[in-house]
TrEMBL record:
Family annotation (SUPFAM superfamilies): Acyl-CoA N-acyltransferases (Nat)
InterPro entries documented for this protein: Acyl_CoA_acyltransferase, GNAT_dom
Top-level taxon of the source organism: Bacteria
Record organism: Clostridium manihotivorum
Keyword annotations: Transferase
Domain N-acetyltransferase: 1-139
GO molecular function: acyltransferase activity, transferring groups other than amino-acyl groups
Protein name: N-acetyltransferase
Length: 184
């Protein structure tokens, strides 16, 4: 489902389905916040959370990130993504997490309340800010004392192309196509 949701969406093909595979075995994965959406027993949506940090010198703040978030193509635009987000944000708040920082679709997440990280004095690990780098507080002012550089789990950077290609053999073959709007 994740492969179908992301295939050719942002890049030629995708690797998010392999990320799902790796993340669920990873020490940083947080299953108690992650959820799937089911319709008549079929998985039509999925959101996976993992541990992340905002580091300011010796101050290390434990926060969370999510990704991938995916909705099956035929169910996109029906509110499933928003439902998964709102439900899991409640869970994360209930477990005492202060905030969520993500790299995500800059035109989608602001409707849920995400703001770019420059609003929180948070930068990427190499000191950058851009539209796709966003955060949300899980309670009022819960991130007011959190600033610094954002680090997500290493699993996000450990998706070699050859491993993705090998993993693709487990699924029906999809054609790699170029579309306008892809990021690269
Ligand atoms: C992005 C995604 C998770 C959103 O979930 P969804 O269930 O389709 O979206 P919702 O039904 O909650 O919200 C629908 C609204 O969001 C908008 N929207 C959906 N995807 C969007 C996107 N990529 N960019 C901007 N707006 C988007 C829709 O136009 C719709 O707007 P409207 O209510 O004004 O008509 C889903 O479309 C998806 O899986 N996309 C492919 C994978 C992906 O890009 N994941 C996110 C990567 S950060």
């Amino acid at each position: 489902m994740t492969k179908e949701a992301f295939w050719n969406k942002h890049h030629l093909g995708c690797d998010e389905h392999y990320l799902v595979h790796k993340l669920r075995e990873d020490k940083d994965y947080i299953p108690e916040l992650s959820r799937i959406a089911l319709k008549n027993g079929e998985v039509i949506g999925c959101i996976m959370y993992s541990k992340a940090q905002v580091v300011d010198g010796l101050d290390i703040h434990e926060i969370v990130t999510f990704g991938p978030l995916s909705v099956a193509p035929k169910w996109q635009g029906c509110g499933v993504g928003e439902l998964l987000l709102r439900e899991t944000m409640k869970l994360a708040a209930g477990k005492g997490y202060k905030g969520i920082v993500i790299f995500g679709e800059p035109d989608y997440y602001p409707r849920i309340g995400f703001k770019t990280c420059d609003n929180f004095n948070i930068t990427t690990s190499d000191g950058k800010n851009f539209d796709a780098f966003m955060a949300i507080e899980l309670a009022q002012d819960s991130m007011k004392d959190i600033k610094g550089k954002f680090y997500e789990s290493e699993v996000f950077e450990n998706l070699p192309k050859e491993e993705v290609e090998e993993y693709n053999k487990n699924f029906p073959k999809l054609k790699k196509l170029r579309f306008p709007g892809q990021w690269d």
